[in-house]
Amino acid sequence: MKISQKGLYALEAMMTLARRHNQGAIKIRDIAADSDLPEKFLELILLELKNARMVESVRGARGGYRLRRDPSAIPLSDIIRLIDGPLAPLGDAEQLRGLIAKDAHHRALYEVFLEVRDAAAKILENTTIGDIVRARTGAEKLRKARAGKTAAALKKNSTV
Fold first, then answer.
1. Given this structure, which CATH class describes domain 5-85?
2. What are the residue ranges of helices labelled H in 52-128?
3. What pLDDT was estimated at residue 5?
4. What is the reported pLDDT for 52?
5. Which region holds residue 64: left if phi is over 0, alpha if psi is between -120 and 50, else beta?
6. Torsions phi, psi for 27 (to 5 deg)
7. What is the average pLDDT score of the chain?
8. pLDDT category, 116, cuts 50, 70, 90?
9. Domain boundaries, the chain
10. Closest CA to 4 of 85, 96, 116
11. E strand or H helix at 64, and its extent?
């Protein structure tokens, strides 16, 4: 499995939409700015996500894009498969199973590839965009709290 730059951009865009899920439709330029993505490339990615019914577009002055489902209902695997194809290192899982059955000489190697694919798929299928956003938000809060404690300690030490 290899995640392309386009796949990473799609994941970033979806995370931005997830972070702002309760704010209604988000304009492409705001998604691009928030995610630090090229706007023209983002338009193509959002169109692909729209055609796959992961996002929807809203017309008008308050228009833009928004998630069609709750972020906790969108596994990373759905986005990666849409943009980059199968999660397996060689084709898809069925193709690997076929190679295992047909090619006795390389069976052990293909079985390892299938195990890698299955492990990666399990993680990506059980991790949602919502999980990533919550983890990122939690890490940011922790960083801010630590920075506040450090600043308070420095202030206390400088007044002593």
1. mainly alpha
2. 76-84, 93-102, 107-125
3. 94
4. 97
5. left
6. -65, 150
7. 87
8. confident
9. 5-85
10. 85
11. strand 64-67
